[in-house]
Amino acid sequence: MPAEYLRPLLIDNGTKIVLLLLDGLGGLPVQPGGPTELEHAATPNMDRLAAEGALGQTVPIRPGVTPGSGPAHLALFGYDPIEHVVGRGALEATGVGLEVRPGDVAARGNFCTLDAHGRITDRRAGRISTADAAPLVERLQTIAVPGVEFSVRHVREYRFAIVLRGDGLSDEIPDTDPQQTGLAPLAVAASQPRAEKAAACYQQWVDRARELLADEPKANGITLRGFGTDPVLPKFHDAYGLRAACVAVYPMYRGVSQLVGMDVIHFGGDTPKDEFAAAAAHLQDYDFFFIHIKKTDSKGEDGDFEGKAQVIEGVDQALPQLLELQPDVLLITGDHSTPARMKTHSWHPVPFLLWAPARALPDQQTRFGERFCALGGLGTFPAIETMPLALAHAGRLVKYGA
């Protein structure tokens, strides 16, 4: 759980902290010696903040370990992801309003495209639109398996969430996505004997789903990922004394915030400007804002170097709107790296910018990018140390000891 040693040090001085998270921010050069996506992007506002603040880089899990989005976010919130294992299914389901109780087994579902031999040709079903996917989820909601209860809800585009409820269930089930095309989805199988009932129920559900989707041109298959249950996490307010809110477009990130006790701010639109406006509308209600930008990660996974750089530029262009809120501490970072060159998450350290005019010691770096962050004054540190840094620079920690 978050560091117990902080609790006696906490004070409430009314300062505001913003964690602006560009999902999958870190990248790699496409050509030797070339820039990363962040270095390639035109970011005059972030560069100014870098010159006025301090840079560093975080290690989300442990050196060399490639993180999933769930554990990487938990680390930034101060929860050791090795100690607190949370399946992505529980995050996704919670984020779309499905209740996940201890003992339930939730999973994230992806529509995928299968060829005539049952092999995956597209792991995301061509990123079918929300309008096309929602009726398919309604079809899946009709599936019944004797003795248990399934709840299914659409998330976004090709994604949906599913929750299994019944007696004697365990979430110790590996993903059915083989993570590459040309292979068939894996069978739902228990990794421990106590999960055999849940695995068998899920396999029955998947078999029926395949029948219902057989005639679909793109979304004729399903993979399941991130099996999990309610982890009963310690709450953010209890750990840090902060009234915290989440501003995010994608449900999974709202889910991880809710599991740690943050409030979710609902708003219209899906641009950085829309998200910053939502935070502004609730500025007096909260001390801590977690603002999540998804498309940096999506473009990285698509291998779209220029597209990822353009998303970063769009955030930078909207940044003055966020700065109008006059946060005492602004952190700009990512949960993990998603280099377009690799088309997937990676283990590389993540760029980190800390701007706190009243208390930060500026270093000698003047631009926000991987190479600059590697030389920054904050050094390379575990992501779970983010919150103590934020609290200290907000003046919310008193001296430790005599």
Topology readout:
Layout: E1 17-22, H1 37-40, H2 44-52, E2 54-59, H3 69-76, H4 88-95, E3 105-114, E4 120-122, H5 130-140, E5 149-156, E6 159-165, H6 196-213, E7 221-228, H7 236-240, E8 244-247, H8 251-259, E9 263-264, H9 272-281, E10 288-293, H10 295-301, H11 305-323, E11 329-333, E12 350-355, H12 370-374, E13 379-382, H13 386-393
Parallel strand pairs: 1-10, 1-11, 2-13, 8-9, 8-10
Antiparallel strand pairs: 2-12, 3-4, 3-6, 3-7, 5-6, 11-12
Helix pairs in contact: 4-8, 9-11, 10-11
Please provide a written account of the structure.
This protein has 402 residues and is an alpha/beta fold. It is 30% helix and 19% strand. The strands form two sheets. The protein has an eight-stranded mixed beta sheet, with helices on both faces. Strands 3, 4, 5, 6 and 7 form a five-stranded antiparallel beta sheet that branches. The chain starts with 16 loop residues before the first strand and ends in a 9-residue tail after the last helix.
**CATH architect. name of the largest domain:** 3-Layer(aba) Sandwich
**Total number of beta strands:** 13
Give the terminus-to-terminus CA distance: 26 Å
Question: Can you identify the CATH superfamily of the largest domain?
Answer: Alkaline Phosphatase, subunit A
Shape annotation:
globular
Q: Count of DSSP helices?
A: 13
Q: Strand-and-helix sequence, N→C?
A: EHHEHHEEHEEHEHEHEHEHHEEHEH
